[in-house]
Design a protein that fits this description.
The chain has 392 residues and is mainly alpha-helical. 51% of the residues lie in helices and 8% in strands. The protein is built from 17 helices and 10 strands. Helix 7 (103-122) packs parallel to helix 17 and helix 10 packs antiparallel against helix 11 (172-195).
Amino acid sequence: MNDAAEDSRSARDPYPAYAVMRAECPVQAVASGSGGRHSYLVTGYAEARQVLGDERLSKDTAAFFAGKDSKRRLHPAVAHNMLAGDPPRHTRLRKLVTGAFTSGAVDGLRPFITRLTDELLDRWAVGGPVDLVAGLAVPLPVMVICELLGVPETDRPKVQHWSAELFAAGEPGRTDAASYAVAEYMTGLIASKRLHPGDSLLDRLVFGRDGEDRLTEEELVSLAVLLLVAGHETTTHFLGNAALALLRHPAELARLRSDPEAIPQALDELLRFDAPVSTSTFRFTTEAITLGDTEIPAGVPVLVALGAANRDPERFPAPDLLDLDRNATGHLSFGHGIHRCVGAPLAKAEAHIALHAILTRFPDIRLAVSADRLDWRRTRLVRGLESLPVLL
């Protein structure tokens, strides 16, 4: 098999390879770039959970790359965001945004999400194939997060484009250029909101205080970019992956179709089965640690394969089976510990509303092509479909 075919098969189904690695050793040294450098890849559940909650691993990318010759030229607002920091800075920033994503706050968005979903599904033409990704999974999350941040409707297509470019695999030039474009846009939007205040989340961040504390200009831009990108890119893949999983498991699809009220309880299993974030964001050891049976020295990157950990049979028996009766609340698709995804309630709300609308409006939905003909995005960080053609 040639390299291209091997890459395609791996993108389509990475789980057999993960299983082999995990069986050999759940923590392995892997090559990392040129010059003989290496990182450690974690594929076991217990080890992954330990890493995600271990304060001896830092996410301070600025500290790790200080003095190192890097060819990357990301905008500082993207390179040094809240995810790329440790307490107390991370704790302070997270506290200022957490309130926007509580269950109560998300409940207030449900009517808007429902209306958007219905408007998008109204455009689906019964008869011919429809691309579920382009027709719902992409536009719905970006419109929701843009509404939340107060991004004008006319600007949303270009914001969506820049966000997608930030995940361009193997093309650092495109990623770096997009980081500057989206950061410069957010800088302008923040300046506009100072002149013409509104009631969006971004307005609240611009004028908000926590006692005497408030965000600096750099922090505002960084948080705005992070919320924009993290707020829709991963949700897009959550929707696409969940829909595909159900379409490939007709019995489970039929169960939800006959009982749509069971959808909220099914979301954790759908997240476990095919995680939208395949590998956690960057972290490195600040001191030597023992992870499982593996000794890891200080100053080395540690990558967590979240999708692999979610398929660990030690934690989830018969992990390659989609079982909507399974208690999958311990999955790691949203991370774990102090960096657990702050937007998890919003992502679940969007998935619940979208799947409920699809199954009630189009009960005979099915794949328009065989699953092995679907194209997957080639990125290290996220796992998602390029398109998902369905028949209604």
